[in-house]
Specification:
It contains five helices and three strands. By secondary structure, the protein is mainly alpha-helical. It has a three-stranded parallel beta sheet, sandwiched between helices. Helix 2 runs parallel beside helix 4. The longest helix has 28 residues.
Length: about 190
């Protein structure tokens, strides 16, 4: 029995899918140094897992009465900025998560299923480098997790903001709001 079937059996409905996955592999370096095995491992963990969770979970969101729900996919500030240290496969996978999220959001809009991506950086600031829900000033909403950085290294006020941002995305009231990548750099040069 799948995890989705277990949720449906216990609660009779599915309203939220939070795909919070982040794998950074020490073998993930530049295009010249990263092995194909590392590339595939990083993409399987960071992109394929999210694709499969959406593929198998979204039909259950659409089949739930009332139809709808929320999907939050973990992205990264590296999806739009790159990094000083080479993490090419990770950044490419997270950029693909952002594009997958955009596609699903448009494709599923009429069904009532909301799809958003969240991002966290090690800095915990706002904008693409921080992913903090900051009252609309940055335009980028963050979610708990953040791949290898996790919540342990993020300060308590930032952690609360990130969690509040995810809760906001889960609320039906967020359906009329758009969340997009900020034009501000949040301390990271683009």
């Amino acid at each position: 029995m799948s995890a989705y079937e277990q949720v449906l059996r216990r609660y009779q409905r599915l309203e939220v899918i939070c795909n919070n996955m982040g794998l950074m592999d020490p073998g993930d370096r530049s295009a010249l140094d990263t092995s194909l095995d590392t590339w595939r491992r990083v993409h399987d963990a960071n992109l394929t897992s999210i694709f499969l969770a959406c593929k198998h979970g979204i039909p259950r969101l659409r089949d739930t009465e009332p139809t709808g729900g929320s999907v939050i996919n973990a992205a990264s500030f590296l999806a739009v900025t790159g990094a000083a240290t080479a993490q090419m496969a990770y950044a490419a996978a997270k950029a693909a998560v952002v594009q997958l999220t955009r596609y699903l959001g448009v494709h599923l809009a009429r069904s009532g299923v909301r799809v958003n991506a969240s991002a966290v950086s090690p800095t915990g600031g706002s904008g693409p480098a921080g992913g903090v829900a900051d009252g609309g000033r940055s335009g980028l909403l963050g979610c708990a997790g953040g791949g290898a950085y996790g919540l342990r290294v993020i300060s308590s006020p930032v952690r609360r903001s990130l969690c509040c941002g995810c809760w906001w995305l889960l609320a039906r009231q967020s359906a009329s709001h758009g969340v997009s990548w900020s034009g501000g750099s949040g301390g990271v040069r683009m």
